[in-house]
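can u do me a favor
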């Protein structure tokens, strides 16, 4: 049982209705005046006058149908026609329901007034004998003037109300519904009237009483001839909807109560942190509007003040409710007035009460989307919204979110179906106390496409679709009888049509019928939906269906069910096809016939392949096809690399069971991936990669493993008329995807692959007979294209071996039967295969290197995947770029990389018989060095030392730029840069590094240290990383200066790539970009190097200094400029004050360096000089750097040397001081300075030493008085190392005497010091 459209009523005199409403107007006529009858029912007995109607005239009318389907109102402009239900007997004696015109006339009473909205509300009977039929039906009409008028079925005016002075947009009604679950809020009846900026809700009970009273008053007045009528009052509420730009439709959801959590959430949002929540949540009326700005708006109005805390909540949200009760004197037009007062009533409009402002709570903002209509579901929890984008949006009204969207439904009309479950199906298993289940369906009518669709809620599939024409109207009331309550509804059985479709072309009124079991498709249990079909004997039911479109839908439903066995599907399809073949050709739907034949063909193909894959029969193979002569040498050549690749690629990985290629392929999945074309051919559909691989494994993997006969499989595929090109793509996809299984038994799999390729090549349509010998074969070119794009290097290479052999054999056989002049084409095709095989071998070696896992502590990350396509698209530097990324992942030192490259070069020159011990000592257990040397041999040009070091430098600096705290990356980049032997490449790399990554951070560091000498963390780096960064800047600028000096002496290098990789198209390599860089201005580079050295020294020794203040205005302006430009630099003599500041800073650097030296006691005990680190504050090159900087900063070098000598003696590093002392030029000044240090040392030994001995006191007594006085004036605390061995002090006094001339004032004092030191030495 499936969905259906059931005709239950016909419209009489429909042409008369159209002529009356559009009298004097020209109706647009479409070009296509004929409408095909797309249904199979007989239309011969239809009236001729109804079949002649066409055109979209009904779309321009306001149409409303009573829920009981006994009254239809069609209005246009000022006119309206009422059609009431009547029963008549047709020619066959059957009674049928018709709608005939019962009243027609003009409804407008004011000038320019037009009908804008209508609604038919049936009123319940108050008689006890009533069984649910309505007493009478009231027609409510809204006008553009704002009036709302109420009429009887006969067009008698009952009431006329002006509630708001604006156009009436929509009239909607809500009636009483029995709550399906306990705890559900009972909804009140009401009539809602929407204006562009206001919403009026009339209480349903008050409206019911007023309409009954007015109808009785009209009947009584007509009977007695009196027109004095006293109508009862009418209660309504009026809201001014705010915060929306435009409102076009609405729905009144009803009274709702928030749960405690939502109440606290809203209170917190509205009232803030200190909001208080009191009592129970308030009851609120929810209104949802659609339009623009926002697209959907949600309004909540707090109900009444019956609960103690509701008034408090109402004041808190500023939502005081205004309720207006209007009596006959102020609200009604035409009542309680005498005849002579009629004109006065027409002139004076009634009082219009102001609306109470109601702010929007929230909405769904979409500035470009504008809503057109909203349709509330019967359960009041969902709503369908249409918009001007042709979308249908499903809203969850409880959560206020959109949960589903359909597209392609412009000008859509919506309706809802609330279907209860048949009680018979559950009587046996469930008790009668269990409530009946209900299913909810959304009905969408798309007039642009002329289709009616039914969708299961909320995320269900489409359960039905009908072609109904493009001029229909979908009529959905959404309410029942007015005046019903929980007491009067007991025992009533109201039969209504929830959704009706009015077709103006045929004049029929049809209802939508959907069985409950279609909602069970949502459940994944194999016993739910299948049980319903099997219990109803699916085959018999399918054959009993008379309508071809329904049969097609039912067959597709069966074929898409994964729980039905393949044999059952085959039998059902075969039975339906046989039944169709027995019918007359004119009565058979060709689409259904083609569907049955194609599906039966596919099911038979699925069964045959499945049977061949399951059978374990082994047959004799064709030796001509199985032989792999010519590929053994290729396999032996690449065997070591294949073994290493297999070992590295055999690590376990995580995958889902349903995505595994070995998972069984259901027949439904097989059918979904193959479709039948109009010419009877089968076409494979590539939905997703897992499904495609699963289909390929089902067809070909058994053949590749040797479990299925390849020639039988290919014969079945050829009989099924599947194109060989698609089969080739599917075969290679499976081969490449299952690379790990192929490498376990490569020889057997290669033999089977070769046989399959030959069989596919021999199919019709594979290699065309009209192939041009001067061009490449499209068949083999497709094979190469697939292999070129594959990242599975080993499987692609093996496939290329057998494809190359198969192509050679195929082309040779063709050439034997043709002229000799065509041998050129043979060599061209084979040349393409030679290039492809060579490229795949290179890719395999490179991929093997990339799969080598990094050591512990390296950067790590996933291994890169490469293919011929990616390498060619990477440009001329794509190969080098992949290797440089691998070097970074392994954190390979530049010296180690240099040794490996040198070893590879030596092996190329001297042969593979001699090994270098250095490389063997560094080689790891997985043979990393050997793999890298193999790659270098395959790519001698792309991986030349200059290019590789340049790319490694660039890769390390790029990674450093991502995380500047990793200063080691920048250091590694500079190390690799230093190993580039070409000064042209070195110069370009330095320039690009400086301008791209370095100068911005360098300038920020300089300005930051200038402003805050002790803070260097706001540049994105800490103190340690900043110090390392500045040191690298110094080295980078030094390399740049050296390269700039050597550029003129060396010609630029010529870059080249391997012959098979000449077709690379992509970005230029780093080396090419480096060669295109401009030359630099050497003095400007030196100027920046000077600043970098000063900054590095300041941060290394934590010195407070403003480095930019050490330069004049010209020097400051030249900083951070483009190094390729010529700037105005300082020249000539510098300001003495500035030179003094520079000198002071360099002296502080020398002092700090000496203080960072190790304990002098260690060096004193050692026989040789100490080993100092190459970097850091203890590096040995700091003094020479200071002297070099002094020369650039116009500071006298001799001052720096004298200061360094004094600081070394002060630190107790006498051997180092003696080395530096030889370079001092002004010996007199140095002698005086060292004399002071000697005196401080002797003063400490004689006067301030805690371990003073009697001999020392005696020596002190023997000294001259002037010397004693001088020694007492000395301050030994200025010495950082006062306790120095006496022999070093004796050597120091000897050096002082040598440096001081005899006529020096302190020469005699030096002699006395020498005597005192000798005396102390003698005592020791």
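np, heres the sequence
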């Amino acid at each position: 049982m499936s969905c259906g459209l059931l005709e239950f009523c016909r419209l009489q005199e429909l042409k008369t209705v159209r002529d009356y409403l559009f009298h004097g107007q020209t109706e647009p006529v479409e070009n296509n005046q004929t409408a095909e009858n797309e249904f199979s029912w007989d239309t011969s007995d239809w009236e001729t006058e109804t079949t002649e109607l066409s055109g979209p005239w009904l779309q321009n009318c306001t149409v409303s149908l009573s829920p009981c389907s006994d009254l239809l109102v069609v209005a246009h402009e000022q006119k309206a026609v009422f059609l009431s239900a009547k029963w008549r007997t047709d020619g066959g004696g059957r009674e049928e329901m018709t709608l005939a015109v019962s009243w027609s006339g003009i409804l407008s009473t004011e000038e320019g007034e037009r009908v804008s909205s209508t609604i038919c509300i049936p009123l319940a009977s108050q008689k006890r004998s009533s069984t649910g039929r309505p007493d009478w039906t009231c027609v409510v009409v809204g006008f553009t003037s704002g009036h709302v008028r109420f009429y009887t079925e006969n067009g008698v005016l009952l009431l006329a109300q002006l509630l708001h002075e604006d156009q009436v947009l929509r009239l909607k009604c809500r009636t009483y519904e029995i709550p399906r679950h306990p705890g559900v809020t009972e909804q009140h009846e009401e009539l809602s009237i929407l204006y562009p900026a206001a919403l009026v809700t009339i209480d349903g009970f008050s409206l019911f009483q007023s309409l009954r009273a007015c109808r009785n008053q009209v009947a009584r007045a007509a009977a007695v001839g009196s027109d004095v009528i006293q109508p009862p009052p009418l209660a309504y509420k009026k809201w001014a909807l705010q915060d929306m730009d435009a409102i076009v439709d609405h729905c009144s959801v009803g009274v709702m109560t928030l749960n405690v959590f939502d109440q606290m959430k809203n209170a917190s949002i509205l009232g803030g942190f200190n909001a208080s929540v009191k009592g129970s949540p308030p009851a609120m009326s929810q209104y949802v509007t659609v339009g623009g700005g926002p697209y959907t708006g949600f309004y909540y109005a707090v109900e009444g003040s019956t609960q103690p805390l509701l008034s408090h909540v109402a004041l808190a949200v500023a939502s005081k409710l205004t309720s207006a009760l209007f009596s006959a004197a102020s609200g009604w037009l035409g009542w309680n007035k005498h005849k002579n007062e009629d004109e006065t009533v027409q002139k004076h409009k009634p009082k219009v009460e102001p609306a109470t402002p109601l702010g929007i709570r929230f909405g769904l903002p979409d500035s470009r989307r504008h809503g057109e209509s909203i349709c509330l579901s019967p359960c009041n929890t969902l709503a369908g919204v249409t918009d001007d984008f042709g979308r249908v949006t499903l809203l969850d009204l409880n959560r206020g979110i959109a949960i589903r969207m359909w597209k392609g439904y412009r000008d859509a009309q919506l309706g809802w179906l609330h279907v209860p479950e048949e009680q018979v199906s559950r009587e046996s298993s469930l008790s009668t106390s269990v409530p009946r289940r209900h299913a909810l369906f959304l009905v969408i009518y798309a007039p642009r496409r002329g289709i009616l669709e039914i969708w299961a809620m909320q995320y269900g599939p489409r359960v039905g679709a009908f072609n109904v024409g493009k001029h229909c109207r979908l009529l959905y009331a959404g309410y029942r009888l007015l005046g019903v309550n929980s007491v009067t509804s007991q025992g009533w059985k109201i039969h209504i049509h929830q959704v009706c479709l009015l077709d103006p072309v045929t004049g029929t009124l049809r209802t939508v019928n959907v069985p409950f079991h279609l909602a069970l498709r949502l459940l994944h249990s194999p016993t739910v939906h299948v049980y319903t079909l099997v219990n109803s004997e699916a085959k018999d039911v399918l054959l009993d269906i008379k309508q071809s479109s329904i049969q097609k839908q039912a067959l597709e439903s069966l074929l898409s069910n994964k729980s039905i066995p393949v044999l059952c599907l085959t039998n059902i399809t075969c039975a339906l096809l046989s039944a169709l073949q027995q019918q007359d050709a004119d009565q058979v739907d060709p689409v259904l016939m083609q569907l049955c034949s194609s599906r039966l063909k596919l099911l038979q193909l699925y069964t045959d392949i499945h049977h061949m894959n399951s059978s374990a029969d082994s047959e004799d193979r064709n030796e001509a096809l199985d032989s792999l002569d010519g590929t053994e040498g290729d396999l032996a050549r690449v065997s070591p690399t294949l073994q290493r690749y297999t070992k590295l690629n055999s690590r376990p990985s995580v995958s889902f069971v349903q995505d595994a290629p070995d998972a069984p392929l259901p027949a439904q999945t097989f059918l979904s991936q193959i479709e039948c074309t109009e010419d009877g051919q089968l076409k494979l559909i590539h939905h997703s990669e897992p499904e495609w691989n699963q289909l390929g494994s089902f067809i070909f993997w058994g053949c590749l493993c040797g479990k299925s006969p390849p020639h039988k499989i290919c014969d079945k595929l050829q009989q099924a008329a599947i194109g060989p090109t698609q089969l080739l793509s599917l075969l290679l996809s499976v081969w490449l995807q299952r690379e790990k299984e192929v490498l376990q038994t490569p020889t057997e799999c290669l033999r089977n692959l070769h046989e399959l390729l030959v069989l596919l090549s021999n199919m019709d349509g594979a290699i065309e007979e009209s192939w041009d010998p001067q061009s490449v074969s499209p068949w083999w070119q497709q094979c190469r294209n697939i292999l070129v794009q594959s990242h599975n290097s080993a499987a692609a290479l093996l496939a290329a071996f057998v494809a190359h052999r198969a192509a050679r054999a195929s082309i040779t056989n063709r050439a034997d039967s043709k002229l000799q002049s065509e041998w050129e084409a043979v060599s061209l095709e084979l040349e393409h295969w030679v290039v492809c095989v060579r490229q795949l071998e290179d890719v395999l070696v490179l991929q093997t290197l990339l799969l080598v896992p990094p050591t512990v502590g390296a950067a790590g990350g996933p291994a890169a995947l490469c293919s011929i396509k990616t390498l060619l698209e990477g440009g001329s530097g794509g190969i080098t770029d992949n290797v440089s990324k691998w070097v970074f992942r392994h954190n390979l030192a530049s010296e180690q990389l240099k040794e490996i490259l040198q070893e590879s070069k030596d092996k190329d020159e001297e042969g593979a018989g001699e090994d270098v011990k250095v490389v063997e000592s560094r080689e790891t257990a997985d043979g990393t060095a050997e793999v890298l040397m193999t790659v270098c041999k395959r790519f001698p040009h792309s991986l030349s030392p200059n290019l590789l070091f340049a790319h490694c430098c660039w890769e390390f600096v790029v990674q450093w730029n991502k995380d500047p705290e990793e200063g080691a990356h920048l250091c590694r980049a500079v190390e690799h840069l230093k190993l580039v032997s070409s000064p042209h490449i070195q110069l370009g790399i330095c320039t690009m590094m400086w301008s791209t990554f370095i100068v911005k951070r360098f300038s920020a560091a300089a300005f930051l240290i200038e402003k805050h000498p002790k803070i260097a963390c706001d540049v994105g780096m800490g103190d340690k990383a900043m110090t390392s960064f500045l040191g690298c800047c110094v080295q980078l600028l030094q390399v740049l200066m050296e390269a700039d000096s050597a550029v003129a002496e060396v010609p630029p290098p010529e870059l080249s790539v391997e012959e098979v990789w000449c077709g690379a198209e992509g970005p230029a390599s780093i080396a090419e970009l480096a060669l295109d860089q401009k030359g630099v201005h050497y003095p400007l580079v030196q100027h920046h190097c000077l600043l970098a050295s000063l900054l590095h020294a300041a941060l290394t020794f934590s010195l407070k200094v403003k480095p930019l203040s050490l330069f004049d205005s010209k020097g400051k302006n030249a900083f951070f400029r483009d190094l390729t430009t010529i700037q105005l630099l300082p020249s000539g003599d510098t300001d003495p004050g500035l030179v003094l500041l520079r000198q002071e800073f360099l002296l502080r650097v020398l002092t700090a360096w000496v203080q960072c030296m190790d304990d002098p006691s260690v060096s004193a005990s050692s026989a040789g000089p100490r080993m100092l680190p190459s970097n850091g504050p203890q590096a040995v090159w700091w003094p020479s750097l200071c002297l070099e900087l002094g020369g650039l900063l116009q500071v006298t070098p001799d001052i720096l040397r004298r200061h360094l000598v004094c600081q070394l003696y002060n630190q107790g590093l006498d051997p180092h001081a003696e080395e530096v002392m030889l370079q001092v030029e002004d010996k007199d000044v140095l002698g005086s300075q060292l004399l002071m240090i000697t005196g401080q040392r002797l003063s400490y030994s004689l006067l301030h030493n805690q371990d003073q001995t009697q001999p020392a006191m005696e020596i002190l007594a023997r000294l001259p008085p002037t010397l004693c006085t001088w020694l007492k004036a000395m301050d030994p605390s200025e010495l950082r190392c006062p306790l120095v061995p006496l022999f070093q002090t004796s050597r120091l006094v000897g050096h002082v005497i040598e440096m001081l001339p005899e006529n020096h004032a302190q020469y005699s004092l030096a002699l006395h010091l020498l005597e005192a030191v000798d005396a102390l030495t003698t005592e020791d």
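Residues 382 and 396 are 5 Å apart (CA to CA). hope that helps!!
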